[in-house]
Amino acid sequence: MTEKLDIKAIRNDFPILSRTVYDRPLIYLDNAATTQKPRCVVEAIEHVYYHQNANIHRGVHYLSQRATEAHETARATVRDFIHATSSNEIVFTRGTTEAINLLATSYGETFCKEGDEIIISAMEHHANIVPWQMLRDRKGIKLKIVPLTELGELDIPAFEQLLSGRTKLVSLAHVSNVLGTINPVKEIIEKAHAHNIPVLIDGAQAVSHMPVDMQQIDADFYVFSGHKIYGPNGIGVLYGKEKWLDMLPPYHGGGEMIAHVTFEKTIFADLPFKFEAGTPDYVGSVALATAMNYLSSFGMENIAAYENDLLRDATEKMMKIDGMRIYGTSPRKSSVISFLVNDIHPFDMGTLLDKLGIAVRTGHHCAMPLMSALGIDGTLRASFAFYNTHEEIDALIAGIERITKMF
Amino acid sequence: MTINEKQDQIVETFEEYTDWMDKYAYLIEIGNNLSPLDPKSKVNQNLIEGCQSRVWLDAEYTNGIIHFMAESDAVIVKGIVSLLIDVVSGHTPDEILNTDLYFIDKIGLKEHLSPTRANGLLAMVKQIKLYALAFKTKG
Ligand SMILES: Cc1ncc(COP(=O)(O)O)c(C=O)c1O
Questions:
Q1: Is there an atom of ligand 1 within 6 Å of A127 CB?
Q2: Does the pLDDT at position B113 exceed 80?
Q3: Is A263 on the interface with B (CB under 8 A)?
Q4: Which residues of chain A are in CATH 3.90.1150.10 domains?
Q5: Average pLDDT of chain A?
Q6: Residue A398, SS3?
Q7: In this structure, are residues A355 and A26 in contact, taking their beta carbons and an 8 Å threshold?
Q8: d(CA A404, CA A398)
Q9: B52 closest CB neighbour out of A344, A362, A407
Q10: Are A223 and A204 in contact (CB under 8 A)?
């Protein structure tokens, strides 16, 4: 049984939600791009700077030890939040993009050779395409693309056909940032593992919307960004099973990631530090952990259930609008709706919704290959967070109806 | 009319609209009334690719006067494009080069010319001046 959330109280935790734009109340429906921050997250940043700021890991002094403890406690919080087994499996990065680039370099250079294949899908964000293309151009590997079904789901039989002795990695989104489709990652990972192929999951659009459990889905690598889960911008997470991270060489070299350096040779530090060259974002880590604790206080199941209500309500009401086309109609969706109305250009609709105080995203959403597959240039995208309300959905619907009449 | 007289006239018209939505309704009307670009002008060579919308711009030079033709895939952009080419068409390269296109700012649409908007309009304004410069040097 899920519990009801007190949305009004939750909204009060997010100061930005009470501001106005163009003299209208802000209706923020661009949560897939970035989420707003609760007061506790911003206060955590302030607290670190005002009360425990010191560079970590190499200080004997009091403050440095407190800061180090806080950073490592944050790592443990992330570990627990995604049910990893060990803190050694949690590497802090700058975000999803950096985490994927890290793997494209460290994993790609170690395990991929000419003629090998990496499987991605037609619904990937550019962050999960371009690093692999760069690896392809360095190594002469091939990218295999899982096609989508009519509903905007991965074509699983086609995926199985792509798995081969040459496949070195499968790298797929957990949730599509355009279609909202929640991919059956557990099933996909099982199928890949049956061929001894490791799987990387891009969880950027998943972690803020549902419970994510590494033990349950058994991903080899899982990556996400702090700013999409109510945390600060500039920090993200690479989860990797210890056995894999152990085998990978470091991505960047520098301080923090070493055990011993002479001019002849460097011995790298143990996990997870060998992947964290330089002074890590020990402020961002603490603030990210604060965001996760904040979410855990409500329960991810409850957040998922409420957002699912919002999604259903919005979908039903939008479908009643004449000329409405929704892209991504899987029965398993997170709270993202991509749409077009009649032949109204997304830029036009987005500009006018903005003037009504409604923030949505327009364009290709960093998924140009997906746009090509759908045969369009772009969409409008409304994406909901657990602080959004049914009243805001009604305002969106009224806005779309009003604007549609203007063309 | 001089370029500035045309600009002032647009500013005056827009002063009637105090509400954003009315202003945009008017822009949409103008955009819808812009005659479509001749297919021979609507080619990649004349395309200004914005991230959000596209603009095509072509120009003709006869008897010392430039005439601009343009289109966009977004109607609001088309409305602004239509105003822009009305203002600068029918003038000499020098008049266009020496002009300050202040009307967009004055009618409250400056945001559409910001580099972050990525709708092709800023590049279009630059392109208009480049056409003027090219025709001037050609003589
Ligand atoms: C599915 C997906 N992957 C990757 C990213 C990139 O995230 P970031 O820009 O935070 O690195 C995004 C962000 O839009 C995304 O939605």
A1: yes
A2: no
A3: no
A4: 7-30+299-404
A5: 96
A6: helix
A7: no
A8: 10
A9: A362
A10: yes
pLDDT band at A160 (very low <50, low <70, confident <90, very high): very high
Separation of CA A365 and ligand 1 centre (Å): 10
Q: Nearest CB to B21: which of A345, A355, A407?
A: A355
**CB-based contacts of A263, cutoff 8 Å, min separation 6:** none
Residue B38, pLDDT > 80, answer yes
Tell which A residues from 61 to 120 touch B, by Cβ distance under 8 Å: none
- Pocket residue to mutate for ligand 1, from A35, A94, A97, A209, most atoms within 8 A of Cβ: A97
Q: H helices within chain B, ranges in order?
A: 3-15, 20-33, 75-88, 93-97, 103-106, 121-138
From the list B20, B51, B75, which residue is nearest A348 (CB)? Answer: B75
Q: How far is CA A368 from the centre of its chain?
A: 18
Asked if A183 and A175 count as a contact pair (C-beta separation under 8 A), the reply is yes
For chain A, residues classed under CATH 3.40.640.10 are: 42-297
**A22 touches B at CB < 8 Å:** yes
Q: Taking a C-beta distance cutoff of 8 angstroms, is the pair A44, A290 a contact?
A: yes
Q: Do B20 and A355 make contact, defined as CB atoms within 8 angstroms?
A: yes
Question: Which CATH entry fits the domain spanning A7-30+299-404: 3.30.750.24, 3.90.1150.10, 3.40.50.1970, 3.30.450.20?
Answer: 3.90.1150.10
- List alpha helices for A130-281, DSSP H: 130-139, 156-162, 185-193, 214-217, 242-247
Average pLDDT of A11-27? 97
Q: What is the ipTM of this complex?
A: 0.90
Give the Å distance between the CA of A369 and the centre of ligand 1: 15
pLDDT at A278: 93
Dist. CA A238–CA A244, nearest whole Å:
12
Helix (H) or strand (E) holding A390: helix A390-405
B3-138, CATH topology level: Sufe protein. Chain: A (3.90.1010)
* pLDDT tier for residue A169 given thresholds of 50, 70 and 90: very high
Q: Which of A120, A126, A174, A366 should be mutated for ligand 1, with most atoms under 8 A from CB?
A: A366
Nearest to A122 by CA among A380, A381, A371: A371
